[in-house]
Design brief:
Elements (H helix, E strand, L loop, with lengths): L4 H10 L1 E4 L5 H9 L1 H6 L5 E3 L6 E5 L6 H6 L3 H11 L3 E11 L7 E4 L1 H9 L7 E6 L10 E3 L12 E3 L7 E3 L2 H11 L2 E3 L6 E5 L4 E3 L8 E10 L30 H8 L4
Length: 267
């Protein structure tokens, strides 16, 4: 379940890797089956789109659902993270980002470190993003856009944007985005359900709105070394978790029981 030398090299060079077929169709179906109940909860950790009124991102899921409590410790995610970071790490943030068909709104160009540093006092850009595509992501339904190599910048200037969407975000200056895009291009991170994306905290990324008739949802786990933990606690726990217990992987078959329960015929 560890990354190959070629994948590690690509992560170092580009700042991201795309790994197809990391989770099975049955496992993704089990993950997705938990979402309607979670999205329907009147919970402040469910952030709602400003215009459509549908869920934009549902956060703190490992504290709200047993499947996600296992998923954040799944060895297919955690073993590569341990391989990259090489020190104890904690669960910093857990969410599913949604772009509903016809109405899913933009995520502006940004680096996650800008928010982690500006809001949470994280000192170094060491956190790691581990994503699972829960729908097929195409050119048309709001894929993540990556700027290859942008993670290697020595400065990570950003401005807090409270206006564009319902989620405040520290965004990257457009001139910086233009510079990086002209230098290395833009890559759309696409793939079938079960594809995993791994990318660095300083990689400039964003995503367009979803005009298509197809939903797009992505599970997101951010892990961070315990030695690099938050130093301020101004945001709610669901945006940056306070529990610094080092992550220990669970069994590789930890999702099988959920799959079996879902596939079992109704009594």
């Amino acid at each position: 379940m560890k990354l190959t030398d070629a994948q590690l090299k690509q992560l170092e060079t580009d700042g991201f890797i795309v790994i197809p077929d990391r989770f099975s169709e049955a496992e993704v179906t089990a993950i997705r089956s938990r979402l309607p109940k979670l999205f329907s909860q009147q919970d402040e950790a469910n952030v709602i789109e400003r215009n459509s009124g549908v869920v934009r991102t549902a956060m703190g899921l490992h504290l709200r659902d047993e499947l996600f409590a296992d998923l954040v410790r799944h060895p297919r995610l955690i073993e590569p993270a341990q391989q990259i970071l090489r020190e104890p790490m904690y669960v910093q943030q857990v969410k599913v980002n949604v772009k509903a068909a016809f109405s899913g709104e933009v995520w502006q160009w940004h680096t996650d470190f800008a928010t982690h540093h500006g809001e949470d006092g994280v000192r170094k850009p060491l956190a790691l993003n581990l994503h699972i595509l829960l729908d097929e992501v195409t050119d048309f339904n709001g894929p993540l856009y990556f700027l290859p190599g942008s993670h290697r910048a020595s400065e990570h200037a950003a401005t807090l944007d409270n206006e564009t969407t319902s989620y405040p975000l520290w965004v990257t200056d457009h001139d910086r985005v233009r510079e990086m895009a002209n230098r290395s291009g833009i890559v759309a991170a696409k793939g079938k359900p079960g594809t995993v994306l791994v990318f660095h905290d300083t990689l400039i990324h964003g995503s367009p709105n979803n005009m298509s008739p197809w939903d797009r949802s992505i599970f997101s786990l951010i892990v961070n070394p315990v030695s690099n933990a938050y130093t301020t606690a101004t945001r709610p726990d669901y945006k940056h978790h306070r529990d610094l217990t080092p992550i220990e992987p669970v069994a590789a078959d930890c999702l099988e029981d959920y799959v079996t329960r879902l596939e079992a015929p109704a009594a």
